[in-house]
Amino acid sequence: MVTTPAAPWAPATGQGGDALPWTRNDGLVAVGAGVMDLVSFTFASHAEQGEVPVAGCLLVVAAALPLLARRRAPVPVLAAVLLLGLVMNLTVPTPQHFGAAVIVALYTVVRLKGTLVAATSAMGAVVALVNWTKWPRLSLMEVLANVLAAVVVIIAAAVMNRWQRDITANRRLLADRAVAAERRRIARELHDIVAHHITTMQLMAGGARANLARDPEVARQALVELEGSGRMALREMRQLLDVLRAGDEAEDEPTAPQPGIADLERIVAESCRAGLPTALDVGGKERPLPPSVGLTVFRIVQESLTNARKYAGEARAQVRLVYEPDGVVVEVRDDGAGADAGLARAGAASGSGYGLVGMGERAALHGGTFDAGPLDGAGFRVSARLPLTADEGAPR
Fold this sequence. Notes:
With about 400 residues, the protein is of the alpha+beta class. Helix content is about 60%, strand content about 10%.
């Protein structure tokens, strides 16, 4: 089961399961802003007046409390913070400036509201924080300092909004790419299944038709194999298409495991019955492989034998699987057709985008190498090496 982390906007939960009207982050921000403003007010008052007014300390702390509801009501919170700041300017001698509470409240308004509301709020903050007790000897530098502080807050909030939009767009793009990659993988799987089984079924049907009159038993056996191949093709296609129905109700019938190394003998036997004599040679110390590696080896052999039956004509094929200490090598070669036919066959096999190209992509997915091409004189060779980690390559 996949769990989703709580959203930062969700209210915190206190003891007994009662939801608080603010989040834990809001509480930390309010406490931090209050502490910063209180420390700043204390040092400034002590430096200029030689004492720290208690009323001023209470107003500073009170100005930070509305920040608890800044996400729910950003504009009223900013208005409350500015009102308390204006009261402090008129009652307590203090140097006027943008405090931490005002910065957080204005930043929240710019992040959550439109341009008009943000601009109006910024102008209101500049006007409210002017020390009107100095009127008409108000310093122009003090007003410009407030304007500059408001501009900095607006720019920071706008940059954060832009960054968040870019992050969201990148996540959507990555999700779309993942979906496209999954579709390509399913397309390759379906191509492998359909091409292999339909080619096998076509050859078996031709063999049954040719032997129907002179050897009914051979024809019957070919029809039995034809039926089994069709049933297996439907089962494998169903397993892959189930990926497209993710989220639907689960089916009671369990699905069969994906093919792997253990199915190589079966596919070689099917190739022999389909008219392509094929031998299987295994070298090295046999050991279990990861399911994904086993599936890749199986698909490479399956596609290679399918191409050999299509293009090699009267030929023989050999499948060689070699277990190495740090990887596994699979090679499929045949001795059919000539060198020129082999070149044409390479182009035809890769033209669909799912033949040799698909095998190469499967090998690259595991960090392996892939090579395919005609042999000198006659024949065609497909070879892939898939590396294994220390744990995967160790015999069990």
